[in-house]
């Protein structure tokens, strides 16, 4: 939790706009009156908007507020993982059946909202025929043209030819 949120006696302003435990506006009160109201309710005085004039505070249960903020942050982190980059590697001598299986898996990744890096690796003498790798990328792109678009042109990096695709 961020350290900038002040509670109870840590609040410095002399006048505060106070919001009650059930969300009702209690008006502008002195710091002492607001602390007294929070204490009577058995709750904490939490500074919600310190930059407002006067600062806005709310009478709430601090531990419950912290817990809700933590859960909200976890939910946001979980939903951000959707755009992950998956990778599928192809050898130059791949058979049609194996290619179909790998392309089916690539389509599943695309449906789930992931980007996919298609990587063709060259072994030994295959490096002398890199043009065949570019042809293979074109063939894969035409097989996936209904489902995906290329993000950039194929690039060589060492012994690998790769391209990133995303769903349409």
From TrEMBL:
One of its GO terms (cellular component) is membrane. GO terms for molecular function: ribosome binding; translation initiation factor activity. Its main location: cytoplasm. Residues 7-75 form the Translation initiation factor 3 N-terminal domain. It comes from the Bacteria. InterPro entries: T_IF-3_C_sf, T_IF-3_N_sf, Translation_initiation_fac_3, Translation_initiation_fac_3_C, Translation_initiation_fac_3_N. GO terms for biological process: ribosome disassembly. It is found in: Cytoplasm. The keyword Cytoplasm applies. It holds the Pfam family IF3_N. Keywords: Cytoplasm, Initiation factor, Protein biosynthesis. IF-3 binds to the 30S ribosomal subunit and shifts the equilibrium between 70S ribosomes and their 50S and 30S subunits in favor of the free subunits, thus enhancing the availability of 30S subunits on which protein synthesis initiation begins. PANTHER family: TRANSLATION INITIATION FACTOR IF-3, TRANSLATION INITIATION FACTOR IF-3, MITOCHONDRIAL. Monomer. This is Translation initiation factor IF-3. The gene is infC.
């Amino acid at each position: 939790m961020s350290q900038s949120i002040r509670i109870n006696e840590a609040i410095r302003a002399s006048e505060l706009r106070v919001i009650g435990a059930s969300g009702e506006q209690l008006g502008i009160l002195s710091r002492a009156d607001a602390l007294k109201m929070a204490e009577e309710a058995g709750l904490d005085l939490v500074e919600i908007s310190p930059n407002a004039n006067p600062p806005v505070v709310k009478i709430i249960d601090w531990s419950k507020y912290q817990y809700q903020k933590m859960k909200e942050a976890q939910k946001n982190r979980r939903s951000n993982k959707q755009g992950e980059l998956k990778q599928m590697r192809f050898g130059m001598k791949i058979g049609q059946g194996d290619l179909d299986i790998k392309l089916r898996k690539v389509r599943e990744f695309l449906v789930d909202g992931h980007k996919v890096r298609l990587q063709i690796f060259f072994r030994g003498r295959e490096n002398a025929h890199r043009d065949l790798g570019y042809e293979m990328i074109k063939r894969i792109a035409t097989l996936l043209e209904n489902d995906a678009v290329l993000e950039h042109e194929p690039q060589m990096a060492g012994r690998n030819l790769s391209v990133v695709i995303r769903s349409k």
